[in-house]
Amino acid sequence: MKKLLLLTLVLSIFVSCKNETETLKTISVDYPKTNKIEVIDTIFGEAVSDPYRWLEDDRSPETEAWVKAENEATYGYLDNIPYRKELKERLTKLWNYEKIGSPFKEGDYTYFYKNDGLQNQYVIYRYKTGDDPSTAEVFLDPNTFKEDGTISLGGTSFSKDGKTLAYSISEGGSDWRKILIMNTETKEIVEDTLVDIKFSGMSWYKNEGFYYSSYDKPKGSELSAKTDQHKVYYHKLGTKQSEDELIFGGTPEQKHRYIGGGVTEDDKYLIISASVSTSGNKLFIKDLTKPNSKLITILNHTDSDTGILENVGTKLYLSTNLNAPNKRVVTVDASNPTPENWVDFIPETKNVLSPSTAGGYFFANYMVDAVSKILQYDYDGKLVREVELPGVGSAGGFGAKKEEKELYYSFTNYVTPGSIYKYDIENGTSELYRKPNIDFNPEDYESKQVFYKSKDGTKVPMIITHKKGLELNGKNPTILYGYGGFNISLTPSFSIANAVWMEQGGIYAVPNLRGGGEYGKAWHNAGTKLQKQNVFDDFIAAAEYLISENYTSSDYLAVRGGSNGGLLVGATMTQRPDLMKVALPAVGVLDMLRYHTFTAGAGWAYDYGTAEDSKEMFNYLKGYSPVHNVKEGVEYPATLVTTGDHDDRVVPAHSFKFAAELQSKQTGNNPTLIRIETDAGHGAGTPVSKTIEQYADIYGFTLYNMGFKVLPSKTTEKVKG
Q1: Residue 410 pairs with which residues in a beta bridge?
Q2: Nearest to residue 536, comparing CAs of 611, 619, 606, 626?
Q3: Exposed, middle or buried: residue 483 (CB in 10 Å: 0-12, 13-18, 19+)?
Q4: CA 455 to CA 542: how far, in whole Å?
Q5: What is the pLDDT of residues 214-256, one digit of tens each?
Q6: What are phi and psi of 267, to 5 degrees?
Q7: What pLDDT, on the 0 to 100 scale, is given for residue 14?
Q8: What percentage of the chain exceeds 90 in pLDDT?
Q9: More confident residue, 126 or 690
């Protein structure tokens, strides 16, 4: 039995140039039937219904049929949006400019990434160091991996002499990787492919082999089955993967969900970082110059985020937030490296520190209200200078090998396309190295930071970007984008998609919510576990600020976020469905009672807690879990849920169940649709062609449900819905 929604968007617009009334086409959505199969979990004595549990089986023909039917309904709706094609054409045109990354040296060559404009994946080029860059040749082209671009390049790692490359690939957007090994002179693959690798870097020891991380292959679906026993292996060149040496993990006392192994630049030490969640790590060090040396413990607890930044002989430089929520750099001797022996090198300040090294110096990248400030220090801890940046925004890339005389850094903000600058490390001068030639004029736009108060009085920053001269009349289409979790900071950066939105007279607003890392560990912790509601309150307050200041109104407001930001949107729209016209939860964590049972989800418990922790935690999670808070008789905003069928980070079942709940219980005429991308995962490596199509659909859906008959850039008139 199908539930038929006839959208009462039979709307008219007065077009002054024609002096006639036109009618907006009626779009009907015939939602597929979603079976309810009663499943009851009893948690702390409470019965919890989960009627869509069957959608968690990503390998079942029933789920496959449901995905197909939902996509047919969704695209049937999207195909009827009159300016969807126009949006796609504009996105395509603006996207089509040459994009080139910063150069880096490996062996005898200088390498760089480049995209001609609309290539699905970036291509690696190279030229002999010292030659003219115009002589660069294609070194590795991921567009040749698969015609539709759905096999992407992951990480790359060169041996110390640059003659061998290990690189990983992802198929269909999955977090599972394969590693291939190439002779860089002949460009030939020289060994069998390493398989079943996940959440891993590749760190070379001299030219002999490299360290990597993986899990045992899970039983059941590799896209949804739980993975929580990470291990570090060493692969010696010329041997089979089955012969790789297990370095760390695989025993009860070494059971961790995330483990990484890295070798210092001088090949002296192996550093092992081991975590049970996405926050906090243990730290170990092994002297590689001594055969059969043991791992020495630096930290035996997970109360901090600590890593080795650099070493000079046995002197270690560590970056840590142990007893320093905004981070500091300390030094210690490798022979006795535990915290009681640490000495401050770059002390903690009121701003959050992200340190790096290049050319024999340290670079302290500070976030000051979410924008960059860079200080350069020598190896004695003396401040050399503040790096003069091109403007107010985000600067990154202050890293290079110790012998380099120059480095390349990027600079961007919401109205400045990312440009690359060459920095002379010794004298501190910057020069523009590469500026993109893009059909976008930053002078036509403005971006300003405001501070507003959240529900509990906390002051929260937000950057609002739009065309200059915009009339604050409460009728501007606005996207409020947020994240608020996992110590991740949202710093200003340019986006082609956002540029197209702002061309339409749209406002793009980004608040720096609690749960993020913009103000250090305390800011992060204020949005975790039993304080998670602070994040939603911050987001709601941001929306209320935009409305009170007449930037927009509830009829013209869309809320958007991905992953943890998808949870943010799901929780906000179920708590305050009156606040926005459109909701856009992407690849969201939406079932808070079961998230920890899929893939690496249990590692997110630092931020969320789990329903198994305590009755209090269970009740708290259930109180905001989007899947469990869709109610009968409520009119929810027009909703376009987006996910990928190969997302094994946040499994698509979250989105499936949320969409099914919305479609079952929605009252009123707002559509509740789900767009499921095929051969796509959590986002990384998504082909450009798919990305453009997705943004055209999202923007088309958003503007249409705000009542725009034509694109806002074409008219000042609006259809009232």
Answers
A1: 396, 420
A2: 626
A3: buried
A4: 10
A5: 988 777 665 655 667 889 999 999 999 999 999 999 888 888 8
A6: 65, 15
A7: 25
A8: 83
A9: 126
Q: Is 580 helix (H, G, I), strand (E, B) or coil?
A: coil
The backbone torsions φ and ψ at residue 674, rounded to the nearest 5 degrees and listed phi first, read: -130, 130
In this structure, are strands 176-183 and 164-171 parallel, antiparallel, or unpaired? Answer: antiparallel
Residue type, 653: A
Among the ranges given (143-147, 174-178, 352-356, 364-368), the one the predictor scored with the smallest mean pLDDT: 174-178
- The CA dihedral of 634, 639, 643, 648, to the nearest 10 degrees, is -30
Cβ-based neighbours of 4, under 8 Å, separated by 6 or more: 28, 29, 30, 31
Residue in 325, 366, 368, 371 with CA at minimum distance from that of residue 522: 325
The DSSP code sequence of 114-125 is EE-SS-SS-EEE
Give me the active site residues, please.
563, 682
Largest CA distance in the chain: 87
With contact defined as beta carbons under 8 Å apart, do 658 and 609 qualify?
no
Rounded distance between C-alpha atoms, residue 567 and residue 654, angstroms: 10
**Lookup: tokens for 477:** 């289409």
> For residue 171, which of 182, 179, 163 has the smallest C-alpha distance?
179
Within 8 A by CB and 6+ apart from 276, the residues are 256, 257, 258, 302, 603
Q: Which long-range contacts (CB under 8 A, 24 or more apart) does 193-197 make?
A: 194/235, 194/241, 195/241, 197/168
The full 3-state SS of 590-638, as one line of letters, equals: CCCCCHHHCCCHHHHHHHHCCCCCCHHHHHHHHHHCHHHCCCCCECCCE
Rg (CA), the chain: 26
Confidence of residue 21 (pLDDT cuts 50, 70, 90): very low
Q: Which residues contact 83 (CB under 8 A, 6 or more apart)?
A: 700, 703, 710, 711
Is pLDDT above 50 for 2?
A: no
Cβ atoms of 550 and 471 closer than 8 Å: no
pLDDT at 721 over 80: no
Query: How large is the average pLDDT for residues 397-412?
Result: 96
> Whole-angstrom Cα distance, residue 105 to residue 401?
9
The rounded distance, in Å, linking the Cα atoms of 140 and 156 is 11
What pLDDT, on a 0 to 100 scale, did the predictor assign at position 222? 57
15 pLDDT above the threshold of 50? no
Kindly report the CA angle at 32 between 37 and 709, in degrees rounded to 5?
140
What was the pLDDT predicted at 717?
Answer: 43
Q: In Å, how far from its chain's centre is CA 662?
A: 26
Q: What does the alpha-carbon distance between residue 704 and residue 415 come to, in Å, rounded to a whole number? A: 25
Strand residues in 645-695 grouped as ranges (E): 672-677
Q: Which of 500, 647, 482 is nearest to 570 (CA)?
A: 482
Give dist(CA 546, CA 581) in Å, integer.
14
Q: For the chain, how are helix, strand and coil distributed in percent, rounded to 5?
A: 20, 35, 45
Closest to 115 measured CA to CA, from 136, 133, 96: 96
How far from the centroid of its chain's Cα atoms is residue 466's Cα?
23
Closest CA to 94 of 447, 349, 413, 438: 438
Tally helices (H) and strands (E) across the chain.
10, 44
* 666 pLDDT above the threshold of 80: yes
Q: Which DSSP letter does residue 666 get?
A: B
Asked if residue 515 lies in contact with residue 485, where contact means CB atoms within 8 angstroms, the answer is yes
- CA dihedral (337, 340, 345, 349) positive or negative: positive
